[in-house]
Each structure stands twice: as structure tokens, then as C-alpha cells.
Amino acid sequence: MHCREDSRFAPNSPSGDTGFHSEKAFGSLPSPDVKGITVPPKSLEDKQCGTMRGLQGHHNSCYLDATLFGMFAFSSVFDTLLHRNRKDGDLEEYEKVQSVLRESIVNPLRV
After folding, report:
1. Which pTM value belongs to this model?
2. DSSP character for 89?
3. Which terminal residue of the chain, N or C, has fewer Cβ atoms less than 10 Å from its own Cβ?
């Protein structure tokens, strides 16, 4: 087996930038954040079928993308994760993680 670093991450770039490079990962496909509350579609429609559909991800593996798709694409069962207020004992980053999940992953998937 031959392993190599993911080319979307540039640990030794000339500029010293070690961040994620979405243009390498996804080309020029736009994936804007979608604010607010977006409900799942009531049925499969053309916008959910075909090429260029599904999750673009947010630094996720394909396994996590498939899990998130299954949890949120056509169901609202897990939506409390998207809208619940932070409680004692939650991570300090709770709101940030929740916002990324809701606005960068789930809402764009449902639009």
C-alpha cells in the first residue's frame, strides 16, 4: 500500500499557508453558506438527483459526508442538533461547530 498526503492540504506550501485549499478540493463550484432554518424536501426531486448533488463536505471524509447526508438530507429527526442552545458541559466551540454544520453543510444540502 502506498500512502501520500492529501493534496488539498498544503503543509509545505511556499507561502507557509497550512490551511485547507477548497479550490484544489472542489474546483470552482460555489458552495455558499445558507443562513436560517431549511427544512428537508418532502420528496426526491430533480435538484436532489443527478450529477453534482449531495455533500461537498467541510474538510470531511467521504464516510462522514455519507453519515451527514443520511442524517439530514431527507429527515428532520436530528434537527435539534442544528438549533439547540449551548448548555453547561458543551464544548466552548459548540456554537461554531453547530453553525458550520447548519449553514455550511446541512442547509446547502437541502436547498
Report:
1. 0.66
2. T
3. N
